[in-house]
Specification:
Shape: globular
Strand content: 15-25%
Bound molecules: zinc ion
Number of strands: 15
Radius of gyration: 23 Å
Largest sheet: 9 strands, mixed
CATH topology of the largest domain: Aminopeptidase
Distance between the termini: 24 Å
CATH superfamily of the largest domain: Zn peptidases
Number of domains: 2
Structural class: alpha/beta
Length: 417
């Protein structure tokens, strides 16, 4: 290896960043707009200023940028991830990708490596689900998936603060949101390193992987209308139990999806609300949200068709009315072939199997794919844990992922226009 990252420094930075928002149980509370979000940003900016010898920039949606210039007049390469976390989250999700981006840039600056392209490190705003009900906020704005009009009416459902005020506190400005927008073709490429958040790598005995595709995500809200009635006096055949009908769909979805026996096809009903939600009343109303993930559009259609049949059967059998509404139908995003190949060759160089896998979680990279050639690198999540404080990637894997990222950026600089 011609150039080496500083693994100890990377681990130290990971440890330092994990102090922001760490709660008593060891989990991390660093949601968009929180004090921990603010403090982390201050730390990142001052670290970049001291170590990367750049003046950090904050764009209109408060994404943080460190811009290192190249030797030729080229479009920039971008590397990064996000620094926010889910409530009681782990210290790797997002943070590791931001700190690997930082380490790659620091290595390049420190060792005087000359790049043809400018290289930008980014830490995205609000990637995780948050009290504003907006995820991958920063990358959605720069890729044009969210506009000013979409954001002015948004408020924090817990504190009531407007998103506009929150973004202002973080150094952005929603009224000039178009300034944050990047047009397709303005960048040369994007790379994100992330922990897998699943158990695929561990199950295969692998430590690192490239990513071929980021899964498509389909969500529906299912509303069931039955009849409230007395839990004691209503005879069993007379009931119109909305919760039971919704349960039939939850169990049915699990069976339909499970029948594929494909690790890259999953379905969940993770949100339910039953009303009146009383022990002595047959529930007259129930609402659930289902989430289906696969890379194949055809598979989504097949599953939805089977759910249609099941819905009809359930309406008859449970004597209820069911209304379904699509909330999200986001297609799979295919990562760039050239970057996948570079990652594979670098894996071989690092004596790792040349594995490429599907990401079953959404990431900022899927929005960046709308703008430029995008790629991702995954690290093994021990025990498959993600979005929880038990989230863990071994030190050796963090360091190796950092080295893989550096090698990949150097090759992207060589090979991409
Ligand atoms: Zn993440």
């Amino acid at each position: 290896m011609e150039y080496q990252i500083n693994g100890e420094r990377l681990l130290q930075n990971l440890f330092t960043m994990a102090q922001f928002g760490q709660n008593e149980g060891g989990g991390i509370d660093r949601s968009l707009g929180s004090k921990a979000d603010y403090d982390t940003r201050e730390w990142i900016k001052s670290y970049w200023q001291d170590h990367l010898k750049v003046e950090p920039e904050t764009d209109a949606i408060a994404n943080l940028w460190a811009k290192h210039s190249g030797t030729e007049h080229r479009k920039p390469l971008v590397i990064g991830s996000h620094h926010d976390a889910v409530p009681d989250g782990g210290k790797y999700d997002g943070a590791m990708g931001v700190l690997i981006a930082t380490e790659v840039l620091e290595t390049i600056v420190e060792q005087g490596i000359l790049l043809k392209h400018p290289l930008y490190a980014i830490s995205f705003t609000g990637e995780e689900p948050n009290p504003y009900n907006l995820s991958t906020l920063g990358s959605k704005v720069i890729s044009g998936r969210l506009r000013k009009e979409d954001l002015f009416s948004v408020h924090n459902r817990e504190t009531g603060e407007s998103l506009e005020d929150t973004i202002k506190r973080l150094g952005g400005d929603i009224s000039s949101l178009e300034n944050a927008r990047i047009q397709p073709g303005e960048l040369a490429g994007f790379l994100e390193v992330h922990n897998e958040l699943g158990r695929h790598l561990e199950a295969q005995g692998l430590h690192l992987s490239g990513v071929s595709t980021i899964t498509g995500i389909y969500r529906e809200e299912i509303q069931v209308y039955g009849e409230n009635n007395h839990a004691g006096t209503t005879m069993m055949p007379d009931r119109k139990d909305a919760f039971l009908a919704l349960s039939d769909l939850a169990v049915g979805l699990n069976e339909i999806v499970g029948a594929y026996e494909d690790p890259d096809v999953v379905g969940t009903m993770g949100y339910v609300k039953v009303s009146p939600n009383e022990a002595n009343i047959v529930p007259g109303s129930a609402v659930g949200i289902i989430d289906i993930r696969t890379c194949e559009r055809k598979t989504i259609s097949e599953i939805v068709k089977k759910l249609d049949d099941l819905t009809e059967k359930t309406e008859k059998g449970r004597r209820v009315k069911i209304k379904r509404q699509v909330l999200l139908d986001q297609p799979a995003r295919i990562m760039d072939e050239d970057i996948i190949n570079i990652v594979k060759e670098n894996l071989a160089k690092l004596k790792e199997p040349e594995n490429v896998m599907v990401s079953m979680a959404g990431h900022d990279a899927s929005n960046m794919q709308l703008l430029t050639k995008a790629g991702m690198i995954f690290t093994r999540s021990v025990g498959g844990k993600g979005h929880c404080k038990e989230e863990f990637t071994e030190d050796a894997d963090v360091i190796k992922a950092g080295q893989l990222a550096l090698e990949t950026i150097l090759r992207m600089d060589e090979e991409l226009p």
